[in-house]
Write a structure and sequence with these properties.
With 465 residues, this protein is mainly alpha-helical. The chain has one domain. Helix content is 81%, strand content 0%. It has 23 helices and no strands. Helix 10 (174-208) crosses helix 21, helix 18 (346-358) crosses helix 20 and helix 20 packs antiparallel against helix 21 (398-415). The longest helix has 36 residues, at 48-83. The chain is globular.
């Protein structure tokens, strides 16, 4: 028992430093890594060379391919900001309909999912919130809509980084894992548009706009599911979000849009989608480049075509790396910790303890473990690094390993709904700074509802043959 508790110490250090001490994420991760390394060396007799090798392997994986994808995705978004295209995109969305229920679905379910797929890292909360405020939305409802909508897209956010990371740390086959994640999340994902309507206009909104929500639901789910099943984890959110915007635009005042300006504004995103899609569909696995490389190869020409000079693009890329350097450092440190805990046997020890404590009922709690990771770290990627290998280790067979890994990333997205980072972003974008506790209180009920449904979904899936 004491040994098992001891194995949780690095994770407890991380949680306490983030939540109680309010340390920066990189510092909390460094402390947890130091504790894990000392324990592995002193208590589990892992040699210094092995510790160094595990740390280096984890850190390098954090930089490539994961870190490169993150930087490239955020750079693409930065190109549209640098060129002014993001302003044209926002104004185009605002022209489509005066109905706030319609606009909420278009903005947080369509554009928000697209931004989560392209960039992640809070862009799918901050930008939709700012757009909703620009058309006169109630700020509290704007934040709640964005937080609720941003739960299930997390798994395939940032061009699939959370799922790529999950496959890395669990050593599960990535394409099959992507398919399992999509299937497990299908029911919870399908609920989101109706929750958005309820937040905006209560039961009246759900009744009056039911067909519209159903249309938006199908528009997202069909390409999202098919892409996850066939092309992998990079494009489900991107293509699903684009489909929602296209379908709803046809229902709205699309004649008000300037097609040439909109096409020019969307150009960097369109090139990235095209390059990733062509690579996924036609390039053999042994010749595929990292998604991060492909994104850069598409985003740079896109920026040049938007009249952003090569010098400005180079400066933007450097600025993006600098801005997110601490986030990358955190990922590298947490990955190094995960490698050390795995090498020392600490992860396996924790898995055995969870099995002993919950027995056959573990499936009911696996999503909640992921939600804890999402709440603490504010990141689906970091939650997968923290608990992904643990979840997979609990599985008694291959099917359970995939199921519990999928439950972890689904829970991580749900946990982000009430994590401080997401709430602070939403409040900052809507002028609610200082009212974060109010938003968390209002979001908590939605969090419990969605988490309960997700837990039951995994529990039932585990009972299926």
């Amino acid at each position: 028992m004491i040994t098992t508790i001891s194995a949780t110490l690095p994770i407890l250090v991380l949680i306490v430093m983030l939540m109680a001490v309010k340390s920066p994420a990189w510092l909390a991760a460094l402390a947890a890594l130091a504790v894990g390394a000392i324990q592995a060396g002193c208590q589990y007799s892992v040699g210094v060379k092995d510790l160094a090798a595990c740390s280096l392997e984890g850190a390098l994986t954090g930089l490539y391919p994961i870190g490169l994808v993150i930087v490239a995705a955020l750079f693409t978004y930065g190109v549209t900001v640098e060129s002014g295209a993001i302003g044209e995109i926002k104004s185009g969305l605002a022209k489509l309909s005066p109905d706030k229920r319609f606009f909420a679905l278009l903005t947080v379910w369509g554009f928000g999912n697209f931004m989560e797929g392209m960039a992640g890292f809070g862009t799918a909360v901050a930008i939709p919130c700012a757009i909703l405020m620009g058309v006169g939305f109630d700020p509290v409802k704007a934040v709640l809509c964005a937080l609720v909508a941003n739960t299930t897209p997390t798994a395939f956010g940032s061009v699939g980084v959370p799922t790529m990371m999950l496959a890395k740390v669990t050593e599960l086959e990535a394409s099959h894992l992507t398919s399992v994640i999509a299937c497990v999340q299908l029911l919870v994902t399908a609920l989101s548009p109706f929750l958005i309507l309820f937040i905006v206009d209560g039961l009246k909104g759900v009744r009056e706009c039911f067909k519209l929500a159903l249309l938006a639901d199908v528009a997202f789910l069909v390409p999202w599911l098919l892409t996850a099943m066939t092309l992998g984890c990079e494009l489900p959110n991107v293509l699903g979000g684009l489909a929602v915007m296209a379908v709803l635009a046809m229902k709205g005042n699309w004649r008000e849009l300037d097609g040439r300006k909109q096409a020019q504004a969307w150009l960097p995103f369109a090139l990235v989608v095209a390059v990733l899609g062509l690579s996924a569909a036609f390039v053999p696995a042994q010749y595929k480049l990292s998604p991060g490389v492909l994104i850069l190869l598409a985003a740079i020409p896109g920026g040049l075509m938007q009249k952003v000079s090569f010098v400005r693009l180079a400066r933007l890329l450097i600025a993006t790396i600098r801005k997110y350097s601490l986030a990358l450092l955190t990922i590298c440190q947490v990955l190094a910790l995960a490698k050390i805990m795995g090498r020392a046997g600490m992860t396996a020890q924790l898995a055995d303890a969870l099995i002993a404590a919950t027995g056959n009922g573990y499936a009911l709690f696996s999503t909640a473990v992921g939600a804890l990771g999402g709440f603490v770290t504010g990141s689906g990627t970091s939650s997968n690094v923290l608990f992904g290998s643990l979840q997979a280790s609990v599985g008694a067979n291959e099917a359970q390993r995939y199921l519990f890994a999928a439950a972890n990333v689904m829970g991580a997205g749900i946990g982000k709904m009430i994590c401080p980072q997401s709430i602070v972003l939403g409040c900052a974008a809507t002028g609610l700074a200082g009212r974060e506790s109010t938003i968390m209180g209002k979001a908590f009920g939605w969090f419990l509802l969605v988490l309960t449904l997700a837990c039951l979904t995994v529990f039932v899936a585990n009972l299926l043959p």
